[in-house]
Design a protein that fits this description.
heterotrimer; A alpha+beta (136); B alpha/beta (293); C alpha/beta (130); A: 136 residues; alpha+beta; Heat Shock Protein 90; 5 strands; 32% strand; B: 293 residues; alpha/beta; Transcription Regulator spoIIAA; five-stranded mixed sheet; 10 helices; 9% strand; elongated
Chain lengths: 136, 293, 130
Amino acid sequence: MAIRVVSTESLEIRVSDDIVRVRQAVRQKSVGLGFGLVDQTKVVTASSELARNTLDYGGGGQCHLEVVENGARAGLRIIFEDQGPGIDDADLALTDGFTTGNGMGLGLGGAKRLSHEFELSSKPGDGTRVSIVRWK
Amino acid sequence: MPKGQTRLPEIFDKREQEIVDQWIEQQQAIGRKLTAGEREQANRQSREFVRSLKSALERNSSGDISGPDWAMVRDFLIDLSGQRAKGGYSPKETAGFIFSLKRPLFTALRGEFGSDPQALGDEVWLVTQLLDELGLLTAEAYQKNREDVILRQQKELLELSTPVVRLWENILALPLIGTLDSARTQVVMQNLLEAIVQTRSDYAIIDITGVPVVDTLVAQHLLKTVAAARLMGADCLISGIRPQIAQTIIHLGVDLSDVTTKATLADAFDLALRRGGYRVVREASASTSAPAR
Amino acid sequence: MERIPILKMGEFLLVTIQVDMHDRLAMTLQDDLTAQIVKHRAHGVLIDISALEIVDSFIGRMLASIASMARLLDAETVVVGMQPAVAITLVELGLPMRGIRTALDVEKGMTTLRAAIQETGQDGDPGRIH
């Protein structure tokens, strides 16, 4: 069954205040969809992780918030894109504790665990695109 | 008849009353007997729908009901389905709202186009297409509503089946009965954590005597629950570890070294009391004839 | 510039985090807190996160840093007031929260701190550390 996009909203991620804006936008959308509190918290937290990755490792980028439908199910799909250096080894990057920076290295693995669907595409020198979906 | 040139809107204007009357008769022939209130509501809805249908046809009679011109009609039917799903109407009684409109419309069309078989054929085809699409939409919306009701009932059942018990002022118990899947674990965690907040308990005993299968997933769910309670400042004990379960857990290689486990709820309660600084003292009985326990 | 206020409560310091933290604010907080620990010779720090609806790995790292820095300055740290939805999410996220004590609220936090302060310097179970 194909996923249908009902609405899209895009945000720029250029400075750390934008991470807060992404959280607020995701919160608003998930409340609007009637997500329970725990589901809201999970999707907002996952978005926060990925937005921070986009900023810290991708040199900034965009976040696209999509309200999606799959048959009778409604959900939120959030796509993070950057034109940064890209990820060399996607599998390794998803391992907890992996990091090339100073962090705890949880961004990707954590976001994946908090989401129902997770897609990562990235090539060195070609930027990174991460997409997560949480269904109601 | 070229597309966009149906005479249906005109026919609705001319024969609205008789169409609606016949339609209501048809509706009442389906399914159960309606109460006076339900009949009144069906009358109102039918009139409103015919008008809505007429406006939509005036705007777009291509037979395609998915565009914005037909939004009002679609919304009306989705609402109706919702009401009827909740009201305990059958699928037949719900989709029947639409399908029973066919006969009155065909009768009206025959009256208008009796001598023009080509035009009659075209109009009948349009009506058939439209009502089939609308009927399917109604049936799907009804189905979705029923599914929502079932989901909601399942949720409530889930919540009811994971009660948190206050054993002492500082000690909670969570006797789990049945399987522990990820949906249930989330409900269990929420209930437990909220109970910890409300009772300001320091200790929570999760009793798994009633959990038949403990595999890696169940063990993970338990560990997550323990971890979440800890983040809220409560100490978690797991009780009801049967000998077979103890073996399974070791064989699975699950690391429970971080968690205090006890064979029975009573043992766990005893430990929680001691950790909490409580002491249970039996007072000497006043009556010497009281049986020793 | 906004700063997160640090209150002195007896021998402890209380930090209440109520806003969405961004990087500058987190850095400033760590600076201020370490300075205050030394200034007041505080032996315990309570970080009240009851107003935080989201705790991501950035905040988690910040809390862990604060706990480590405080320990170097001979102060114990307790994080209090985590919301249930946040706790559930943090566990799913997989944030280890190592070396961070937690308590339900400020009152229980103080009890935990007093016990922790007594225990450090002794061998044995260092209390509810994760």
